[in-house]
Every structure is written in structure tokens, then in C-alpha cells.
Amino acid sequence: MVQKSKKDILVFGFALFAMFFGAGNLIFPPYLGIITGPQWLVSFIGFTLADAGLALLAVMAATKFDGDINRMFSRAGTKLGIAIGCADILCIGPLLAIPRTGATTYEMGIMPLFGDKIPVAIFCAVFFIITYVLTIKPSKVIDIVGQFLTPALLIALAVIIVKGVINPLGPIIEEPMIDGVVAEGIAQGYQTMDAFAAIALASVLIVSMNEKGYSTTKEKLTAILKSGAVACVGLALVYGGLCYLGATVSTFNDVNAVQTQVIVNITQGLLGNIGKSVLAVAVALACLTTSIGLTSATGQYFTNLTKGKISYTTVVTIVCVFSACMASIGVGAIIKFASPILSIVYPPTIVMIVLAFFTEKIKNDNVFKFSVYMSILISVLTVAGSYGISVPIVNSLPFASLGFNWIVPVVIAGIIGNFIKTGK
């Protein structure tokens, strides 16, 4: 039983790693290394906590509710819970993450090999037609590609990272290019949207656990905690290596570096055109499998939410058409578009993830409602500040420099909510 348990932990650990690590994750750590330079390690820690750490918490929280997102968010109020759930799914769906897979494939897979000979609009149309076909009629090809692609991509990254550590491409700049290194690491970690994906895809892992005989919630949480440690160590090694590689080319770049091109240029510098070509193909296939997985998850969520009134095929069709249009604007534009949205959506999601661990002990629903509404309020005011609508007190709140100015107000709101009786 012990041996079987250890084997399960490794299997679940690799599953979590594959769930959290997509080709899109390649573009943030190297860029982070460039702009933070000598403080790349500090920014990397912030990035890993906001990415892998939060995603692990999200999976564990979702497990307590058997992967049912709406039930997990329901104590904040049925309508608000559904709104947060929809926002999370739309972020990993047609609004941000799915279009980014197409745009990333074009900028990291097509352009390095063919330049701009293939128009982006035509490529995106083809990419999402393929996504549509393989999502509507799933094929074992996707399973095969997924099983072999992640190890292949990791081997390629390991070769690049080891070569870059042994023979750095250049010296690291003396001072970071930005202020607030930790906050930037956290913000870049948000951009991966792994926490949202973890909530949406937790049900897949739960099914696997049920089949292996993990019947109680406690058994599942223990297994996920241990396997999550395996996944997080793997992610930390990859992210740390990529962040360091970015730092070694910081003297050749600035804050305006094109994020999708950084790792491509590093690979070419270390391994030549062959290495660049291998990376491009691997990234393209990884993005396609990610696109299919997220499109399927989005289709299933909205079909279940509407109790079948909107069919799975209809949702998938809408997602693919909209994503093709969004992908055409490019990764850089998608990231800029995503930043304020994620800054608003993440805090209430984090609040609900954390409170999910205490749902049995918290008897008053107002703790959830007051906390979530406060997190939304502070987040909206913070984002408004970046558009010139200044609210001075928001930037003076504790942990504002780390991007967590909503924590103290949320705690206070939750305490107040605990003493206000819910209406029955």
C-alpha cells in the first residue's frame, strides 16, 4: 500500500505539473529576469508563489467541493458566486488564455521559422479550426501528444537552462530596471492564470483519485498536498532557470523586450537555429493541446451552468471564433488587456479559495459576502488609479507595495460580517 501510495503521489504530481505548466508560462519568467536583473531570485519567488503556490491552494480548495466551482463560491451569494466563477472561466477561456495560445504559437512557433510570410489572421483561423475539430470530436492523438510533449518540452528546457548556467550569454545588469520587484513577480505570476485553470480542471484530477480508491476528502487533500509539493518543486526549478537566463541577457534588452521572443532568442544564442526550431515546434504543439483543454473546460462549464440550454457545441464554436479574433491582436496586446482584468478578478478568487478551507468553521455567510465585496472594491479602486482616477488611501494601505493592499480591508470586512446576522 505504501509503494502504491508513493507511485500515486508521483503520478498526481506529474499531472499537476502538466496542468500548471503550459507553453505560455515560458514567456513570463525570462522577461521577469531581464527587468529585475540582480534581483531575479526575489522576483522569481514572488512569481512562483503567485503561480504554482496559488494554483496548488486552488486545487485543494476545489477538492473540498468535488471540483464544483459554483458550489465552492456559493457562500458569497448565488449570483455573486456565479459571477466570479464565470469571470474565472472567461479569463482562462475566450477572453484571455485561449487567444494567447494562438498568439503565442504564431510569435514563438511560426514567426521564428517563417517570418511574416504567413499572415497572423490566416494562421489564427487555421489554429482555432483545428482546436474546434479536436475539441468537438476528441481524439487519442491529443492524449498521445500530451503524454510525450510535456517530457519532451522539459528535456529541451533542461538542456537550454543547463547550457545557459554553464555558459551565460552575458553579464547581469547592476540595477533592476523597475521598482517593486516582488510586486512585479506576483503580477507576472497572475498572468499565467494557473489558479483559474486549477479550479476549472480540478475535477479531472478528482475523477482519477476516485478511480484509484481515494474515497474521502481528507485522503484526497493529503495526496494533493504531497503531489503538489512534487509539482511545485518541478515548476520552481524550471521558472528559476528561465528567470536566471533572462537575467543573463538583461544587458542586451530593456523593459520593451518582446516577451514571446526572449526565450526564442536565448535558445538561438545557446543552441543555434536547430535549438530554436525544436523549441518552436514543441511550443506550438503545447499551445494547441492547452487550447483544446481550456476550450473543452469552458464548453463544459457553461453547458452545465445553463443546464444544457446552451449546447457544448455552441459554446465551443463561440469560443473558437472569438479566440481567433482576439489572438490576432498579438500576445503583447492580450497581456496589456489582461492586466487590469486579472487585478480585479484575482483578489475575490483568492479570498474564496482561502475561505474554502474554513467553510465548516465559518457559520455566517456574511463573512464570505463582506470579504469578497471588499476585495472587489479595493481592486477596482486600485485599477482605477492606474487610469488616473486616484484614491490616495488605496496606495497607503498595508502591503500595497506587494500588490496585496486588499488583504487588511478584507480581513476587517470579514470580521464585521461575522457579527451581522444573515437574513433567512
UniProtKB/TrEMBL annotation:
It holds the Pfam family Branch_AA_trans. GO terms for cellular component: plasma membrane. It comes from the Bacteria. It is a multi-pass membrane protein. GO terms for molecular function: L-isoleucine transmembrane transporter activity; L-leucine transmembrane transporter activity; L-valine transmembrane transporter activity. Keywords: Amino-acid transport, Cell membrane, Membrane, Transmembrane, Transmembrane helix, Transport. Signal peptide: none annotated. The chain crosses the membrane at residues 9-28, 40-59, 80-98, 118-136, 148-166, 186-207, 228-247, 278-298, 310-335, 341-358, 370-393, 399-420. Its main location: membrane. It is found in: Cell membrane. GO terms for biological process: isoleucine transport; L-leucine transport. Component of the transport system for branched-chain amino acids. Belongs to the branched chain amino acid transporter family. This is Branched-chain amino acid transport system carrier protein. The lineage of its organism: Bacteria, Bacillati, Bacillota, Clostridia, Peptostreptococcales. The gene is brnQ.
